[in-house]
Specification:
Elements: E1 2-3, E2 16-17, E3 46-50, E4 57-58, E5 68-70, E6 73-74, H1 98-102, E7 103-107, H2 110-119, E8 128-130, H3 141-144, H4 146-157, E9 161-165, H5 174-182, E10 186-191, H6 197-203, H7 210-222, E11 227-234, H8 243-252, E12 257-262, H9 269-280, H10 285-295, H11 314-330
Parallel strand pairs: 3-7, 5-8, 8-9, 9-10, 10-11, 11-12
Antiparallel strand pairs: 1-2, 4-5, 6-7
Helix pairs in contact: 2-4, 8-11
Length: 361
Amino acid sequence: MNERDGAVRGRGATIQPLARFETTHREPFDDGWVGDDEEPRPLRTEVTPEHPRKVLSWNQSPDVPFELSLNPYRGCEHGCAYCFARPAHAYVGLSPGLDFESRLFAKVGAADCLRRELARPAHRVTPLALGINTDAYQPVEREWRITREVLEVLAEARHPVSIVTKSALVERDLDLLGPMAERGLVQVAISVTTLDRALSRHLEPRAAAPQRRLETMRRLSEAGVPVAVLVAPLIPVLTDGELESLLDAAREAGATSAGYVLLRLPREVAPLFEDWLRTHHPLKADHVLQRLREAHGGQLYDSSFGHRMVGAGPYATLLRQRFRLARRRAGLAGRLAELDTTHFRPPAAPEADRGPQMDLF
């Protein structure tokens, strides 16, 4: 059951599926007070402050190259129609559809939590992945600056960090990233799905334009920050034909390594993306979905380790071969160099935790 069906200007989702844990259901009803020619009110972004007690998450997934992550925000204003993190909004009783991109949560005090967690004697230093579930540099970061505060703590502690983003806002923090890069403490992966501006505008409506992301790669590279391009997601039929040209463009922009992820459609993302396809690309929709089923054993998605990121079968094998050849031809490595974990020093405790005498020590 869905609400507010149809494309909304500046938003990615075309439907509003109800949160899967909700016990009540709602249906839209026309009471006759809204005329057919009346413009719908714009869907504004609402941000609710959260006050977490811990911000570091550990994982043991064999599919990702990190064990430790931190997400400054819940939900993402970029509104990418394909975002694998959308189902997480159901845990707060909100829809993975338009709610995910318009009703956000900001983890106020994340930097202080991070200080406490890094200062613990038991903390094991390993590269921290920043903004993995949702983009740490999404538009609301301009106002809330939580990512900036987290980076300041990491820079002070000389803690290694990797960043994945599709935002040009990361350039704002070059004053921190540059010196960290000199110590081998940071690397940035820029996610690029397509070079087609028109497609990107509907697919990821509030993310930076593809050409702007390439410019961001260039500026990071010129500042000495190691840069990778992440072709994520690679969408059958819609974007897979751009694979070679995309890697060439990234290499020219200063990327030194590349990776890719096949489109993932867990839980509510499958019907959300299918409706987006049938709204914006109705003639290609069946072809896209058939290719995905070929890569996932007849299903739209298989979440098993070793399979969920790249798929299996003839089509998935062909993509892997094309990617390896294109990467080699472009002169890109498979992954960036390892970050340095030897410079770490525990950060100072948050000011609120210090007594009046603690600054003497």
